[in-house]
Amino acid sequence: MKLAVTIKPNSKKGPLVEQGSDGLTVYVRGPAVEGAGSAASN
Question: Can you give the residue ranges of every domain in the chain?
């Protein structure tokens, strides 16, 4: 099974996970600088 996950860094909504027809969207407040957005999603 494959699952599409989209990370939206620097979001005012975050932290939040929404499920859509095309997969999951993860909103995080961390910026997309040197992995900070990815680290905030953990």
Answer: 5-40
